[in-house]
Write the structure tokens for this entry.
Amino acid sequence: MDRPVRTRLGDGSLVEMTPAEIREDVLAGTEIGARRAKAPPLTEAEVDHLVDIFASEAKFSAVDMGDEVCLSFDGSGNLDVGSRVDELYSYQSHRGADMLELFAIDYSYKAIKTMLSYEAAQMKTAQLNVIAPLQYGAMPDLGRYSMPDGPVPNWSELMPLGKIAEARDAQVEAIDHAVSDMVYVAEGMWEAGTDGMDFDTAGAAGDGDFLATLTAIEKIKGRYPDIGIELGMASEYVLGMHGELTYKGRRLAGMWPKEQLEVAQEAGATMFGPAVNVNTTKSVAWNVARACTVIKPCMDVAEIPVHPNVGMGVGGVPMSPYPPADAVSRVSRAMVDILKCDGL
Amino acid sequence: MQMTRGMRLKQAKAYVAEKLGCAVADLADPIAMHDLRRDLGLGRIPVQELTYPTHAGAMEAKFRIAEVLGVPINSVARFQECAGLSGSRPGGAV
């Protein structure tokens, strides 16, 4: 059986591949993932299973009964219809969400700080209307604290000038501002009734961004032991924009998901969301094999739930505003079957 | 159990099933859960807004969930404070 089947590339476009070509892609994806993240490649049985999933002509793919996982969301309540609370209700009751997230379109804690009372009032209203656990989410977004948007010299402008020390000092100063804002918003949300806080796309501005998030989590969890803390990563690898920042003695730059999870747990996070970027020119099978390989070492050390990010452009889901169900379902099944993850 | 207690999936499923008095497999069975949620007052998904007007919904259901699962729920505690309700906080340390 080597009849071509329809599958997709990382940009969502349909292509035809034979099962043998899919196997080649799976092997290539796990090989490059293993090499980059210094992780073991997928086993022969895992490769076979991925090939089975992607060589199927079924429109939809799913885990076995009994293997269902929890579905969490960053940014539910998209204002497609009605109010944000209407949307949260819809996610809970009609779209299969097990956990909900209230958010504002300017998805940055720096922005939320300026309208916290309004957002906290929305949280209170939402909590009165939904049953599912509901968190508040935004991005740490360290870059917002640099000029011209923020008060700190812009390290991205300083570095090309060779002003490395000044660039590093600016990031350290920005971290203090970001931590202050994240803790401030968490305080307001806790008082309004939130079940948890989501720090989404942590590390987007590099190791300083990640350190700010870990520091904020530690402070928030210390103050509110019952609060949920989801730490979702921006990408598979922490960029060394500073390069020398550490958390509890561990250098953050260059961390892959396993190390990211370890420091997240140490900081007090209750859920971790690894993110692996999609290569849009490679097949979804290649991307999923690579993503599973990069994330798999997490599962051996996880003490908290791991929910890999499988939104558009991460985890193997095609980079498209409307990810096709055939691809999303295959990616989701592969993540659960291979990783035995706690949710998505 | 995952969000605020940090429980891994297998542990969380077993915990909830024990507290609800059902099998782990029932947790993903909408037919079984629909009846169980009615029996325990945990809130149901209404087909229409007024399908279950006499059953627990939203905040009411969360009071029951905190009690049945034995976990504190922040919004329930806030509701009690704001409403001036006396009595111990539903749920406990898990």
